[in-house]
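Exercise: predict the structure of this protein bound to WQD.
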Amino acid sequence: MSKKVLITGGAGYIGAHTVDALVRSGYTPIIVDDFRNSNPSVIQGLSKLIGFEPVFFKIDICDKKALKEVFTKHEINAVIHFAAFKAVGESVLEPLKYYQNNLIGLLNILECMEVFGVNEFVFSSSCTVYGEPDSIKEVNEKTPKQLPSSPYGYTKWMAEQIIADYAKAHSSFKVICLRYFNPIGAHPGGLIGELPIGKPNNLLPFITQTAIGKHSKLLVFGNDYPTIDGTCIRDYIHVMDLADAHIKAVEAFGNNSIGSCEYINVGTGKGTSVLQMIQAFEEVSGTKLPWEFAPRRPGDVIEIYANVDLAKSMLNWEVQFSYKDAIKDAWNWELSNQKKNR
Ligand code: NAD
Ligand code: WQD
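Solution:
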């Protein structure tokens, strides 16, 4: 019988792509989401993509009773926990909303796993735990973590600690915290992708929305950073590759070399500047992007990219797509959304 994997936040951006990847790898996904940052059209798109309607529960994971019912109805083998709020700026304005959802949600999941004897856990962590790297911009998992600069960052930082403490106290429990760098792109088939609610804060959705005419221009925050062209550098990873890393993580639980609590970077290993992203977008889409320089965005990290040796050795995972592939798929997704909304 195929392994049942509970996906919290499975209607979200990364969650939906992971559901597709799980099905392609022979797993049975059980999705939990309350659409607070997504909508039912994602489940429709997913159903078309995977060829059937996935098991779906519209519940808030902070509602422990409702969550327990899911575990009662399905014999879950592993959990991938995506459900959380993720907007850095909003977390500064509404910290309690972030601590409540991101931490209570996690505590409820762990409690259900304990009660129902589920011992395999993949957690969505973030490169935000590294803060601004000192001199070496390529960070590996031994690079010391730094105190975060936002409540959102603290929720990931605290979550890693809660999970480590839980793992220490439960010898049969295994967890892999995947530290994502900057996920971008969409499914190449155009059926699922990122659906930012309101004005996007992230670079690529703002680029594609500007190119399609939703915004007059992109503001490039800062042109005087000590980088190759004065703009910030990030490690942009295709969401398809990121989804695949979750499958490799679930597979790795069967492997004796995996410790009880692992932290693994998921990026491409390469840094790309904001101006390089704009240039790549214009090249890939054949569309001129209106943009101009603006002051630095407070709190921005200057330059960071992943060392991905551990993902390769421990998960046997490597990226298959380039940032240009991801830009192409994000642009196709924007165009297909425009058609749908006409
Ligand atoms: P997303 O907002 O698209 O997906 C999260 C999903 O969880 C949404 O569908 C939302 O409705 C759901 N959700 C949130 N709280 C819930 C609750 N209490 N009950 C039920 N459903 C709930 O975000 P994403 O980009 O797919 O991110 C997924 C995870 O990855 C998050 O934990 C995020 O912090 C982490 N992460 C994201 C990024 C990124 O840039 N996208 C980078 C690093 C880490
Ligand atoms: C990338 C670059 C901006 C928008 C955020 C979170 C982080 C993580 C990933 C979850 C930066 C520049 C952007 C625009 C711009 N998420 N930019 N104009 O800053 O790496 O991180 O998402 O864990 O925690 O903080 O990504 O896409 O917001 O920005 O010039 O309109 O693009 O200044 O240099 P970031 P981003």
